[in-house]
Amino acid sequence: MATDANTKDKVKFNLRGVLFETKRCTLCSFPNTLLASLDSNSEYWDEGRGEYFFERDPGVFNSVLNFYIMHALHVPKNICGSVFRKELEFWKIPVSYISECCWKQYYEVDETADINDVLRTTGDEIVPSSKEENVSYDGIRYKTWVALDNPNISKAAMIWNIIYTAVVIVSTLVFFLASLPDHRSELYFSTLQPAYVNYTIPSEKLRIYYMKDMDPGLFVVEYICMVIFTLEFVLYLIVCPCRQEIIRSPMRVITILLIVSMWVTFIFEFHKGKMIESQSTAIIFMVVRFFTVLRVVLILRLERHFRAFRVLLHAIRASLKELFLLYISFSITTVIFACAIFYAEIFYDGTYDNLFIAMWWVIITLTTIGYGDIYPTTTMGYIVGAFCAVCGIVLLALPIAIIAANFAGYYTHNSARMRHLKSVREEAKSATC
């Protein structure tokens, strides 16, 4: 009788030919799960064999049974996280039962998915927006758009992006050369020479910018670069399948600001003699000209050519939350050490006259720059300075470690992704032969 009772209490499971056996009372520990709700009327019940048959992974099922016995769910190391997640959904086991030691392994699949999503949306594959209708993948418009936005799509696209990058570099070089006094001449563009200047120009550098123009040769190169930037953007605006996406691209927004500022500056150059007569219009001229420095940012288009550079940008972007917390910690540390050094040197004049100067010294010390313009002179000040310097080393090491860890993750996934895409292309090429 005891043997019959034990046999009746046992339940068998067949998972792709792998048999498992346990007691029914063991499954009742978690009544809301699938195994606890099984009976002879279940769709999985095999009357002839006297067992439940499941077309599921037997490796995961071993962990599922251990969960009912140990009341703790552990993730198998040889099982993909996404597979284990789907198995839990099938067996109706809540993720809250996963043991703490397996949290990292279980949620790594989410981190991997996030990284792959970023790499997919900024990788070599470009797909037009679904908002744009009647887009032909074989049309000239689509191919031109892809060539302008992705240098790796064809040799022609690569050549154009190299030329565009060279134009950006030349334009940046002209911008720097124009700041040299030897490359500036007396006003010759302006149709009107300044009759008088009714304000005091505060510096010689500003006076050179106001009273002199860049050399004609540099001006011609600047004009050619400006025209190329404009034509490239106009062409992109024409062929882009979804123009609303342009304002969502930081690089395209920067290009718009650059083109507008360059053309406005170009127009101002012919009226600069009149504009600099008034301080307010002179300031407007310099503010508009300041935005032409955005041409330097266009060098970031190189990230399309170098995947490692692209991965680095992704790693920095992924580290923004941690870097912000680090910035908060840095600010708090600055305030604490500023107060400490101020009161440590409060009995001596000529060093830390106020807390703002003390904060300046702390920032320079924490960042290990150490100009030497201000330094402690007391024993207590030396102690505060020593602790401040040590804290600076620790604070600087943290962002490097965070960015390096994210870079390693993105670089590993990007390398695997590139190898996979290469294998897919080779298979497609061999299939067509």
Automatic annotation (TrEMBL):
Location(s), subcellular: Membrane
Topology with respect to the bilayer: Multi-pass membrane protein
Molecular-function GO term, any one: voltage-gated potassium channel activity
InterPro entries xrefs: BTB/POZ_dom, Ion_trans_dom, K_chnl_volt-dep_Kv, K_chnl_volt-dep_Kv3, SKP1/BTB/POZ_sf, T1-type_BTB, VG_K_chnl, Volt_channel_dom_sf
Any one GO cellular component localisation term in the record: voltage-gated potassium channel complex
Keywords: Ion channel, Ion transport, Membrane, Potassium, Potassium channel, Potassium transport, Transmembrane, Transmembrane helix, Transport, Voltage-gated channel
Location of the BTB domain: 9-109
Any one biological process term the GO annotation gives: protein homooligomerization
Transmembrane segments: 158-180, 217-239, 251-270, 282-302, 323-343, 355-375, 382-411
Pfam families registered for this protein in UniProt: BTB_2, Ion_trans
PANTHER family linked: POTASSIUM VOLTAGE-GATED CHANNEL PROTEIN SHAB (PTHR11537:SF254), VOLTAGE-GATED POTASSIUM CHANNEL (PTHR11537)
Record-given protein name: Potassium voltage-gated channel protein Shaw
Organism: Mizuhopecten yessoensis (Japanese scallop)
